[in-house]
Amino acid sequence: MDEEVLAEEVRQSIGELVRAVRVVDTMPPGEAAVLGFLDRSGPLTTADLAHRRGVTHQSAAKSVKELIGGGLVRTEPHPSDGRKLLVHITDAGRARLRRERAQRTHALDAAIRDTFSPEEQERLRDCVALLSRLTARLTGR
């Protein structure tokens, strides 16, 4: 198989899988992404969040505003630049993010158990290691 064909098939398959798993989400993807970044990275500015998500500052600000309204994030003045605010995830935000992740995991787990034999599940487990190595290569981690 031509390497570019394999690369395209992997890209399409993973994209479709991600979209299929997100069907169970109960919050908008932008808001879930903001909570995920804050959970993994700690406090960030709205500009940082926009950059990491690859969206406009206005789009990130809209997500932050919605999350503030829901008590899922809070802001405080930036310690070295009074013109900026740092966005922090709250305990409620962490709990909501855990619920979203658990729903995705449960849906994916059920699909794996319903679709694959134990032998196929083992093969899939091996593929996860390969995909993790590929991700590390692409992200430089």
UniProtKB/TrEMBL annotation:
Instruction: Note one Pfam family from the annotation.
Output: MarR_2
Coiled-coil annotated residue ranges, if any? none
| InterPro entries named in the record | HTH-type_Bedaq_tolerance, HTH_MarR-typ, Tscrpt_reg_MarR-type_CS, WH-like_DNA-bd_sf, WH_DNA-bd_sf
| Segments crossing the lipid bilayer | none
Query: SMART domains from the xrefs?
Result: HTH_MARR
Give the HTH marR-type domain ranges. Answer: 1-133
Look up keyword RNA-binding and say if it applies: no
Going by the UniProt record, its keywords in alphabetical order are: DNA-binding, Transcription, Transcription regulation
Task: Indicate what this protein is called per its UniProt record.
Answer: MarR family transcriptional regulator
Q: Which species is this UniProt entry from? A: Streptomyces luomodiensis
Organism lineage string: Bacteria, Bacillati, Actinomycetota, Actinomycetes, Kitasatosporales
